[in-house]
Amino acid sequence: MMKQAVINFVKKVSLAELFYDLVFVLAISRFVNIFEHDDHSKIVFQDFLKFGLVLISLINVWVTKTIFINRYGRDTFVEKLFMLIDMAIIMYISYSINNNWEESFTRFNLAFSFIVFSFVAQFIYFLFANKEVCEYRKAFYIHISFFSVIGIAIVSISQLSYSIGIYPAIVILIITWLVPHFIRFIVKEKPINSPHAIERLNLLTIIFFGEMLIVLSHYFEHLDWKGILAILFCGSLFLYYTLFFDNMIDHHKGNKRVYWLFFIHYLIFIALSLLSLDFEFSIHNQLSSTLIWVICYIALIIYVLCLFVILYLFGKPKYRFNLIYIGSTLWILGFIFGIGFINIGYLFYHFCLTSSFAVIMVIQLYAFIYSKKRYSKTN
């Protein structure tokens, strides 16, 4: 019992961590550059693949840093110095995000190798400076070796041409995404502090919502009614997210499961980024109305299902959804998606439908939470 209490104490998110997150505001805002062609050609499917690779690469950096601080961070001066170095590298990486990968491939990968070697330096520093890590030395040795090999591999890949180097780069990305999370099965590692991890993920999610608001600000130059509906849509999606985490999620549940929370949030970040990009596409008429509508609902399905899975894994027992609730939610989603094709070319109509869907979802969830709380009081 005492061990569980130690693991689940509420570790405070430091101001340095909040400051570190700010650099991802820049990085996220650069995603749209992937879809801007110098020759003004059409957006193709490969652009979305590039977007996915870049987003996962950047979130990998954030997750690695966050888990490291979660386990061993003490908010010291040296830690803050490492954060500033990492922020500078991420800013450089951000300006390598564009559609012309043939030119930026070397620059992008070299910058990533720098941040990987920065992680190596941080592990080495903590190994000698922090006495608390003595019982986790084997894990540190594995992390140092792993990131050293990855850093050298990325430097080697950066010297290849884009047409050849992109394939080993994808393999390296997948390895760096998955392997660090499974090291804990090989050697003993310090458990992740669940409340801190959840708060950090919540804060990064807010940054993705912030990017959506920046895109939507375009509609307020001349007070377009589509902007009012879009803000209603964005705000409702955010309220939907907060209702889950403020009321229904157990922040101290399952330290081993918390890895799944990170994986699921990758999909949430992809969904929110797709919605932001979808608004960009509609503003600049970069895609057909049909594709804009389909992308919007693919993102919404991902977003809703991810929150359902989080509730299943981390939810308080009394807030578990039954099949009727899940089925009705998916039916509403499918129904609104279907009637969207009735007048597919009318953008204002789509804004009305999506904002209505988001509001209905919030009302439905709030009513569910209220009924469960009321039932608990009467029993």
From TrEMBL:
<dbReference type="InterPro" id="IPR010640">
    <property type="entry name" value="Low_temperature_requirement_A"/>
</dbReference>
<feature type="transmembrane region" description="Helical">
    <location>
        <begin position="321"/>
        <end position="342"/>
    </location>
</feature>
<feature type="transmembrane region" description="Helical">
    <location>
        <begin position="348"/>
        <end position="369"/>
    </location>
</feature>
<feature type="transmembrane region" description="Helical">
    <location>
        <begin position="225"/>
        <end position="246"/>
    </location>
</feature>
<feature type="transmembrane region" description="Helical">
    <location>
        <begin position="258"/>
        <end position="279"/>
    </location>
</feature>
<feature type="transmembrane region" description="Helical">
    <location>
        <begin position="199"/>
        <end position="219"/>
    </location>
</feature>
<feature type="transmembrane region" description="Helical">
    <location>
        <begin position="140"/>
        <end position="160"/>
    </location>
</feature>
<dbReference type="Pfam" id="PF06772">
    <property type="entry name" value="LtrA"/>
</dbReference>
<feature type="transmembrane region" description="Helical">
    <location>
        <begin position="81"/>
        <end position="98"/>
    </location>
</feature>
<feature type="transmembrane region" description="Helical">
    <location>
        <begin position="12"/>
        <end position="31"/>
    </location>
</feature>
<feature type="transmembrane region" description="Helical">
    <location>
        <begin position="291"/>
        <end position="314"/>
    </location>
</feature>
<feature type="transmembrane region" description="Helical">
    <location>
        <begin position="110"/>
        <end position="128"/>
    </location>
</feature>
<keyword id="KW-0472">Membrane</keyword>
<keyword id="KW-1133">Transmembrane helix</keyword>
<feature type="transmembrane region" description="Helical">
    <location>
        <begin position="166"/>
        <end position="187"/>
    </location>
</feature>
<feature type="transmembrane region" description="Helical">
    <location>
        <begin position="51"/>
        <end position="69"/>
    </location>
</feature>
<keyword id="KW-0812">Transmembrane</keyword>
<protein>
    <recommendedName>
        <fullName>Low temperature requirement protein A</fullName>
    </recommendedName>
</protein>
